[in-house]
Amino acid sequence: MKKQHPFLALLLVLLLSTGSCKKEETVISDADFYKNTSAALVDCYVAIYNQNIAGYPEGAVDKTVSGPLGGDVHITGSTTASSSTTTTDLLFTLTNVPYVYRNGDWIVTLTLTGDVTYNGSFSGAYKSINHQSANLSVDGTVAYKQTTRNMDMTGSVSINRNNNTVTAVIFGHAVSY
């Protein structure tokens, strides 16, 4: 009968126990990255609209205002109201507009520059709104728990909001939620 070595048994137990404690690194997938970027953009555009257009008389719009957290937004176009439906045909010209969007453990911090449409109509739960930009510049981060992914992109962004569904193409990456 062979003699067992207690040292080898202890070493084996230690190796097995330390191997199972390895912390998995969180990775932000492209799908989550672009989905949360899209949600942050929508939230920023809605904040600009609500702070500067909603509640004002319908008609022509031409004003320069501060973004929700700074920067400049030049808003041009028009709004109309018919019954309980509001229709917008607006252009937001954004210049160094910072924005922070939070959804649970997700935090998106952006600075936006470029022209973006706010076109469509809405009434109560119904909404059909489109945001287009041929050359939007977005600088910032998408963070989830202890992981951060940077962005510094310029290009085409298309976001369509229909009722509770959003479909978007963000710098060539399609997402829907």
Please describe what this structure looks like.
With 177 residues, the protein is α+β, with helices and mostly antiparallel strands. Strands 1-2-3-4-5-6-7-8 form an 8-stranded antiparallel sheet. β4 and β5 form a beta hairpin. It is globular. 23% of the residues are buried. The model has no long low-confidence stretch (mean pLDDT 90).
List keywords for this structure.
single chain; about 180 residues; eight-stranded antiparallel beta sheet; globular; about 55% strand; alpha+beta
Task: Tell me the Rg in angstroms.
Answer: 24 Å
Order of helices and strands: HHEEEEEEEE
Mean pLDDT rating: 90
* Low-pLDDT residue spans: none
Could you give the order of strands across the largest sheet? 1-2-3-4-5-6-7-8
State the end-to-end CA separation. Answer: 66 Å
Task: Please summarize what this structure is.
It contains two helices and eight strands.
SSE blueprint:
Elements: H1 6-19, H2 30-52, E1 59-66, E2 72-82, E3 85-103, E4 106-123, E5 126-144, E6 147-162, E7 165-170, E8 173-176
Antiparallel strand pairs: 1-2, 2-3, 3-4, 4-5, 5-6, 6-7, 7-8
